[in-house]
Amino acid sequence: DIQMTQSPSILSASVGDRVTITCRASQSISSWLAWYQQKPGKAPKLLLYKVSTLESGVPSRFSGSGSGTDFTLTISSLQPDDFATYYCLQYNRFWTFGQGTKVDIK
Amino acid sequence: EVHLLESGGGLVQPGGSLRLSCAASGFSFNIYGMGWVRQIPGKGLEWVSTINTVGDRPHYADSVKGRFTISRDNSKNTLSLQMNSLRVDDTAVYFCARADSGLVTFDFFDSWGRGTLVTVSS
After folding, report:
1. Residue B110 and residue A46: Cβ atoms within 8 Å?
2. Residues A46, B62: C-beta atoms closer than 8 Å
3. Which residues, listed in sequence order, are joined to residue A10 by a DSSP beta bridge?
4. What is the pLDDT along chain A (106 residues), one digit of tens a residue?
5. Do residues B36 and B48 lie in contact, with contact meaning Cβ atoms separated by under 8 Å?
6. Which of B47, B106, B107 sits opposite A97 (nearest CB)?
7. Cβ partners under 8 Å of residue B12, min gap 6
8. Nearest residue of A to residue B50, measured between CA atoms
């Protein structure tokens, strides 16, 4: 089974900050990685897939990078609407989510 | 607009059964793979099961294999999850999700329902 290790678990930041979240796979997953945003009581929302392809309607301040086992989600300038929990998902072989990163207000 | 609406959640005793349904609308249901993802309240996301377009290629997480059965009715645009031998640790919100393809192989989930809560407790 492929394990996904996401860090940090909690990230405290301010509006305007550049924020970086990482995911590490236990084995190579090529570029089969997606990122989701989830707010309390809501369904996850797709942000990016295939590492860096931005889903339609998602602001360009979100970007993704990496390949193989190490991946990064970057928010270039944190906005009030971005305080949420973020998850990575590998879909190279079956599906595994990272443990999540809660981005809260500093 | 893609719309996924889960139903069938509720309170069930350990060892009991429950059947979840997901009504899909706003897209051609029969050309997309579908899946279930669950979330213990306050915790992370866990993939449960997926099924391809024609329903002959189901996949299950080890934690539910042999107890849960995924199925679909393309004539009714409905996805189902039959859950048997339920355990306390199956308590979670269950989300229905659409895959970005027919799931000949693996793919990401691009649309999600709002979820239905399953509580397993005596």
Report:
1. yes
2. no
3. A102
4. 999 999 999 999 999 999 999 999 999 999 999 999 999 999 999 999 999 999 999 999 999 999 999 999 999 999 999 999 999 999 999 999 999 999 998 8
5. yes
6. B47
7. B18, B86, B118, B119, B120
8. A94
